[in-house]
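Researcher: Go.
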Amino acid sequence: MAQTVTQHQKGILAFQPLDVELRNVFKFFKQEPAVHGVDLDIRQGEFFSILGPSGCGKTTTLRLIAGFETVDAGKLLIQGQPMTNVPAYRRPVNTVFQSYALFNHLNVWDNIAFGLRLKKFRKAEIESRVKEALQLVKMESLRSRFPGQLSGGQQQRVALARAIVNRPAVLLLDEPLGALDLKLRKEMQVELSNLHKNLGLTFIMVTHDQEEALSLSDRIAVMNQGKIEQIGTPCEIYERPKTSFVADFIGDTNLFSGEITSVEASTVQVVTKTGLTIAVHRTEDTPTELLKVVAVSVRPEKIQLSLYQPSTVNNCFEGRLVNVMYLGTHVNYVVELINGININVLQPNTFGSLPDRDTPIYAWWAKEDCLAISH
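Model: Structure:
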């Protein structure tokens, strides 16, 4: 169940003050930049995800915001205040870790109350806040249990409650669902989305899971080798990737490398290294320089298959099936085109009989369903 953001909600977010700002931030380890000139504006109440492969700098960026690492160059502000010399415990943020980091010798109630007691809150205030946090994460009935008596999902709820009980301005989530199995992960995605809506806090989540980021986020920053490749809504990131890395990393795609050989008012023609001529619908972001080397991205679900040659004149290629994978709701086909290139095609399962391997077939797609991206 994805969290959808209406145009009205996006408009409201756009006018919210900034909760977190990074201005040309660098972090070096052994003189190598782990974070390389990162700029981020994260608004109050936003669910913002930092997505990327292992080692891309996303966790280091989160640790810089939390105060667990220091910025080597650039500026970091939270709610308009510079954080350069502010230690982690003085920042208006709380972090939820993948490992939960619960105290095994304390029960659920005492784990949640721990931070408040450390800050010398009055007993009545502690009781009120812990009760509220338990209700939010639906753990009231398990308040007396110890972490070892809880499932992974229950432990994650306690970790979330312990973070939100302090009422931080910003909640930082470091791979929060990474330790859970797939079914529980899906359930907790819904819970996390509901929690964000109910609290209205700014959530900043680090993840390597594309589906998780797409389903939960208002906006996503895709990182690669310490730099931000693209920032946008889930729809923008998936449908209009700015770089071949983003296209390839977010979901599945078929990438063809080639040169622009023709530019018209509504169409750019690309000839690939293997001799395919691909027509791409021209937009304001489409490269138009003749002979420029580009990557053409076509999502597997955008490709159609036919046993007979369709009437379309653009982007129709002859091939043969080399693999058919039944996925339940969908079927994944691997088609070898006549030039020897394999492409992936994803189609809904219509419960008909599946074609055999080596079946001659035509693969085609509309020019509006592919993008030309600068290398």
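Model: The first strand starts at residue 18 and ends at 29.
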